Amino acid sequence: MKSFLKISGLIVAIALISIACDSNPSLQKYYVDSKENSEFISVDLPSSILQLKDTEVSNEIKNTLETIKKVNFLALQVNETNKELYTSEKVKVNAILKNPKYKQLMRMNMGGANVSVNFLGEGDAIDEVVIFGADSDKGFAIIRVIGENMNPSDILKLTQEIKMDGDSNELKQLGSLLGSLK
To answer: Percent of the chain having pLDDT more than 90?
Structure first.
């Protein structure tokens, strides 16, 4: 009887460890790993740099802005020396975004560039929006808007009312990085 309990306990422990260790790659892990690679450009923007154009907007818009916690930007500019890296990294990102937990909102093909918009969460309670754009001549970029219970239609309304704090170091850094892309 004691050996049965030991074996049962061991089986339960192994099952719990197997469930807890998700072997699927995550976008967060990819982002963190890629930030360490000097080929990538990465910028983390706190929500504090997002400001409204007009202080007299609806409470709905103000509440929507408060649901955004931060914005992550990661890019890989393709050049003659890193084309293989570009190809392999693009495959990794596409594989991550094919995970069923990411729901596709929209996909566009604009000439040589492809853009997809995906999200994590449920309908009107999104926790993350991921915009992935790739162009074989220029490279790719991933923009992650991380928040809590974001509503897609409210986020679209918010984009009309938002201005960026031009004095922020993060925004200046992002502007100079984007300006260096060809």
So the answer is: 29
Of the ranges 104-108, 126-130, 148-152, which one carries the lowest mean pLDDT score?
Answer: 148-152
Residue 174's nearest CA partner among 41, 10, 85 is 41
Residues 31, 73: Cα–Cα separation, whole Å: 9
Element (H, E) at 124: none
Assess if residue 58 is contained within a domain. Answer: yes
Please give the structure tokens belonging to residue 172: 């200046």
Name the domain count of the chain. Answer: 1
Please report whether residue 6 resides in a domain: no
Residue 132, domain member (yes or no):
yes
Residue 158 tokens read as: 């918010």
Query: Residue 118 and residue 113: Cα distance in Å, rounded?
Result: 17
d(Cα 80, Cα 89) in Å, to the nearest integer?
Answer: 15
User: Lowest mean pLDDT: which of 19-33, 35-49, 82-96?
Assistant: 19-33
Counting residues of the chain whose pLDDT is more than 70, the rounded percentage is 68
Range of the domain at 78: 24-180
For 85, residues 6+ apart whose C-beta sits below 8 A from its C-beta are 39, 76
**Cα–Cα distance measured from residue 125 to residue 173, given in angstroms and rounded to the nearest whole number:** 31
